[in-house]
Known about the structure:
This protein is of the alpha/beta class. 45% of the residues lie in helices and 16% in strands. Strands 3-4-2-5-1-6-7-8 form an eight-stranded mixed sheet, with helices on both faces. A hairpin with a 4-residue loop joins strand 3 and strand 4 (85-87). The chain is globular and about 50 Å long. The chain starts with a strand and ends with a helix.
Amino acid sequence: MMDRIAVTNQKGGVSKTTNVINVAGALADRGLDVLAVDMDPQGYLTHRLGFEDVYKADPPTFADALKTPSDHDVGDLAVEHAEFDLLPSNIDMFTLEQDLIASGMLPRMRLSNLLEGADSWDVIIIDSPPSLGPLNDNVVLAAETLLVPVEADESSQLALNHLLRQLDTLEANYEVHIDIAGVIVSNVSFPLDNEQEASIEWFESRFEGHVPVWVVRSRAAIKRSIQAGGSIFGPDAEDTDMREVYEEIAEEIANG
Length: 256
């Protein structure tokens, strides 16, 4: 069975999509076949990777596949990127969340059912929407292993506590065990100010002895790679010291 990893945090602005792209790039750089899944109706991952036309494509789309998973094959919906494959978001996913809310608990397993036969990849990494709702529940239940991106501030600490409570609820309702593979503190600027330093210490203390906490510094090379539609491991990417951090994350996933 392939590894499924979700990058999730209901808080916006914590670099979920940037981390998905660079973790996927790091895994692909190790020689693994990777599928990135864009579960966010806003389609930031799809747009960042240069597939704006696919985001507005006519059916059948990812949105249709989430309505009736047994009628669709992920391989028919995925598109090829230079570094890894992508299951692109679609504009029709905006209405899907309300349908899932009205349908109760079982639809929260639709992504899991859809990915069940997706055996063409070694790793599937899922970009989640910035909310705690049925789409995000689908992501968590499909992966059961999470990378949690945060920023070095107090609001990210609060959001993390909300996420942990939500995970407890999902574990109880669906009788599953959800693992956190690591926490990624993103967009960190040095020298640290007092809030950043205190926040990083809080995350390290909160997870000490349980999971790694990685710190990704703010780097222009990361922003330029994303703007160019790829990761810092792409063929034309600039060299940056943050490659080592993402290589550590990829190693944790590959060996986990």
